[in-house]
């Protein structure tokens, strides 16, 4: 597995497995399957309500904890120093581990400065090996970096062929933060899986549209966490290290980028309201 070295020297697999929208009931089995076929990087979050299943799968796998790179995220309802600090301990308990490899602020809302200070303390205490953010657009990202001691190791953003995050990545590189993609397949939006250019490139290498896309971002040095509950798809998504896209292929795929979200903007007032009420609505 190819790895990326984060800004504090921690090594992270470039390709991992995400469990967003995997139900709590199916998480343990799905993650067990992912570990069985070879994934060693797992991405969960407090707001996914499935940290327990991830923890159970890791514990039962028999795989050494040091060989698994584990990511989770602090949710908005746990924002602020004291709440975040308590939630980190709760996540450790649910995940059945003494440390988290990568801890992110999930959304750029609430008292995320207090949250980040709690994460910095957890990092210094050895509870976390690296800290970062998710969904921080360049303006808030720069503001956070300039007013805290530890530069985020990761910024996890919607990154796919339609929204390549080229400018965001350039800004993050100035500070030494690694770009990580969520929704690399854009959840199939914009007829992604039938894209003619990706299909044609895939035919040259006997690879699927998904594999071509993952390979493109790997060659761009972007960390990826595709999600699937299908074991065969898990294997397919891992099988992207036995071919290399040409410069022409890379240019063709890059030309598909419109820097437009396939989902939503975190600057949309209605989206902000939805996120701030997400936990309440999902627990009511």
Automatic annotation (TrEMBL):
What are the record keywords, sorted? Answer: NADP, Oxidoreductase
Q: Which residues form the NADP-dependent oxidoreductase domain?
A: 21-257
Residue numbers for the site described as Lowers pKa of active site Tyr? 73
The family database entries (Pfam families) matched by this protein are listed as: Aldo_ket_red
Active site, per annotation: 48
Which InterPro entries does the annotation name? AKR, Aldo/ket_reductase_CS, NAD(P)_OxRdtase_dom_sf, NADP_OxRdtase_dom
Q: Output the PROSITE patterns linked to this UniProt entry.
A: ALDOKETO_REDUCTASE_1 (PS00798), ALDOKETO_REDUCTASE_2 (PS00062), ALDOKETO_REDUCTASE_3 (PS00063)
An example Gene Ontology molecular-function term: oxidoreductase activity, acting on the CH-OH group of donors, NAD or NADP as acceptor
Chain sites annotated for binding substrate: 106
Q: Which domain of life is it from?
A: Bacteria
NADP keyword on record: yes
Report the sequence similarity comment from the record.
Belongs to the aldo/keto reductase family.
Q: What is this protein called?
A: Aldo/keto reductase
User: What is the species of this protein?
Assistant: Pustulibacterium marinum
């Amino acid at each position: 597995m190819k790895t990326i070295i984060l800004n504090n020297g921690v090594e992270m697999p470039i390709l991992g497995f995400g469990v967003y929208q995997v139900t709590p009931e199916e998480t343990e089995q799905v993650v067990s399957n992912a570990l069985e076929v070879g994934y060693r990087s797992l991405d969960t979050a407090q707001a996914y309500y499935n940290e327990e299943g991830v923890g159970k799968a890791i514990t039962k796998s028999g795989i050494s904890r040091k060989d698994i790179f584990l990511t989770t995220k602090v949710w908005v309802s746990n924002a602020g120093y004291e709440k975040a600090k308590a939630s980190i301990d709760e996540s450790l308990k649910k995940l059945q581990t003494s440390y988290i490899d990568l801890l992110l602020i999930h959304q750029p809302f609430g008292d995320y400065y207090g949250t980040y200070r709690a994460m910095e303390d957890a990092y210094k205490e050895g509870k976390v090996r690296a800290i970062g953010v998710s969904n921080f657009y360049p303006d808030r990202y720069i503001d956070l970096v300039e007013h805290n001691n530890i530069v985020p190791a990761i910024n996890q953003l919607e990154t796919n062929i339609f929204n390549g995050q080229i400018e965001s990545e350039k800004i993050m590189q100035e500070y030494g933060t690694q770009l990580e993609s969520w929704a690399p397949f854009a959840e199939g939006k914009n007829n992604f899986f039938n894209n003619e250019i990706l299909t044609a490139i895939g035919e040259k290498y006997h690879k699927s549209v998904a594999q071509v896309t993952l390979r493109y971002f790997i060659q761009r040095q972007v960390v990826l966490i595709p999600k699937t509950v299908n074991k065969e798809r898990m294997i397919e998504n891992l099988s992207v290290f036995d071919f290399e896209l040409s410069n022409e292929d890379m240019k063709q795929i890059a030309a598909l980028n419109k820097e437009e979200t396939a989902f939503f903007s975190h600057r949309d007032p209605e989206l902000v309201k939805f996120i701030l009420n997400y936990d309440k609505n999902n627990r009511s």
